[in-house]
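Fold sample X.
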Amino acid sequence: MTQSESATIAALVERARWAQVQFEAWSQEGVDLAVAAAGWAIMEPARNRYLAELSVRDTGFGSVEDKIRKNHRKTLGLLRDLQGARSVGVIAEDTARGIVDIARPVGVVAAVTPSTNPAATPANNLINAIKGRNAIVLAPSPKGALTCAQLLAFVRAALADVGAPPDLVQQLPPPGSKEMLAELMARADLVVATGSRANVAAAYRSGTPALGVGAGNVAAIVLPGADLARAAAHIAISKTFDHATSCSSENSLVVVAPAWAELLDALQAEGGVLATHEEKARLQTTLFPDGHLATSCIARPAREIAALAGLDAGRFGACRFVLVTEEGTGPDFPFSGEKLSPVLTVYQVPDFSTAITQVRRLYDYQGKGHSVGVHGATAEELLRLGNELPVARVIANQIHCFAVGGSFDNGLPFSLSMGCGTWGGNSFSENLQLKHFLNITRIVRPIPERLPSEASIFGDYWRQYGK
């Protein structure tokens, strides 16, 4: 990194620190007004559409109309989660334990964001950061840099309107570099990394406290007890929304045998096309030309991918998503991994226990820690999934790509960054949310002593094994 680049990063962080110090003195009411201003900066319909169009134009990923819906829905949901939440002063008091919790900012946040969501993810990060009275410096992917810059222009103007320091939100100057990003992460107080595994690994190496997310390769189990038409409709929406830019879109279905034929018919009724053995081979050559996912196929419509593979336009011209059958997992079976495209792999298994084993094999290859979907499971089967699979979320009977990141009909926090726990190499196993952007100071008062007797602690042990 040149001396000039180092000076650029130093000045960027210095401006962020100055803005954060000013903003830290704001009241809860003022902070909430700034949060609303930042939220409306992306949700206002004309700005939202402009950002969505810019995003698809520059990245080549996704659908304009779906990005409009995503920007709106994810931001509105986050604002709902934050409404009434305390982030200034005393936020909790437990008189019985003598504990008072005081919210404090973390300081300057460095946030690495992906090209697949160049507006929604930065908006989510910066709104959470502002709610915690922090400053944030965004480091978008090169393809998403212009979209991020335009979003920040809208947000900075909105912050200025309510009297907040615009430098609460800034961006690493494009085109940036790995060295500049490393310097930014080293100078920040917290790093949030969403996107490539390389960026997440760099965040954890930075020496700064970091929150990174794991890789996606979502599988969903379909059981005979499911409403198979409804399950197929949910899967089709999830697999095709924004042309599968989301790490939460299903990549594989694991179908218990009695449901197989009816589910495949239902999926095809939803616009899926089942590839023949020959078509699958041609599709594999196009999607994975050197064993790795081709950028030209990421988040593109199914019919375009089929055309690139030279598949019959008569069969695939109106295709919403492509279905391929598979038996193996691992590098020799690339369809068992994440595809970031409307291509869905289907496995047939004889029973629920074998389905669990198959999902575990998939996640041993890719996607451990993220989530698993299931349609038609009993309460007992849901508990088995939660106890036996290496996942942070079990999503029952829902549109998976919506549900994982928070939905208006489930209780998960709205987020575009899902921690995958130690299974996915992450330090947290929740959806990224406000509490991750706060330090907590605790006032601790004395309370009546609660000294246990030895018998209350060791009684069961003594009765079984003696003293």
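Fold sample Y, listed below.
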Amino acid sequence: MDKEVLDWLLKGPAWLRYAVELQLLDNNPDAGPVVEDSSIAAICRRLKDGNVGIPALKTGKVHYTDIGKAYWDLFFLADAGLKVADLGLEAEAEKIFRFQQRDGAFVIPPNVKDNYYCMSAILVSSLAKMGYHDDERVKAYIRNAMNAQMSNGGWDCYGYYGMSDMDSCPMDDLNLLMLLGQYDEYREEPGLNGAIDMLLRHWEDRTHLYGFGVGKRFRSLQYPAVKYGILRVIDVLSLFPYAVDSRSFRSMFDFIKSKAVDGRYRAETAEVAYAGFDFAQTAEPSRWLTFLVNRVEKRVSACL
């Protein structure tokens, strides 16, 4: 990547430098300074909070679309490459597993049913990144999800298992691929090509599926892309060589890169819940969004 941009990234806060060192430069940075960072410490406190954090999941007060609460706070920490053990969140992680059923699925209040993989996969994917990659409970969840796959390779939240005469749900496909893409055995699994094609075709066809579209909100750079957004879609797809090799992927990624100014990217949506982070500010370039695009670029280069 461009040295000037890299130097700019490394002038960011401790959590950003940690992510760059770990994921772009393949170093083994110390998580200590990140844990002591006031912004990260605040998110950890929020995750432990009984009203908005992981303990609140059992009350039904926290929904997966709530920005700045359990689902997306954990997602952000996982995206930065931090581990549960680094952050002292072991007890909170175990609270999530209490929602797991004997068959591996998760049922979380208020309305996350066992076949709502689009919701539960957000939490499980984060846990897998944060030290639970080889945990048997995560593997049980994956087995359950794979058994619920539609014959066209995707998933949906209505339980049409095995059916092929209807489209799968973009959010189900995206969030399960976000988890499965962490495993070598799934990155080149042909059985997932249908779900990948669904996301690529959705971009090309500009259709509305299950309430999800690819209009102005989807195309804007935002983090986290809670309701489905181009930056998260391209990030997930970049985990799969089959996707990276497609014309639709290149079209989507070229669209994102066209937004760069001097190799830097700016958030196009401000989220009050993350006001202390540059990805929630629209006036200046965001180191975090720039890091994310360069992470995708690194994956793409590895596939060539």
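Sample Y note: The mean pLDDT is 93.
Also: DSSP finds 17 helices and no strands in the chain.
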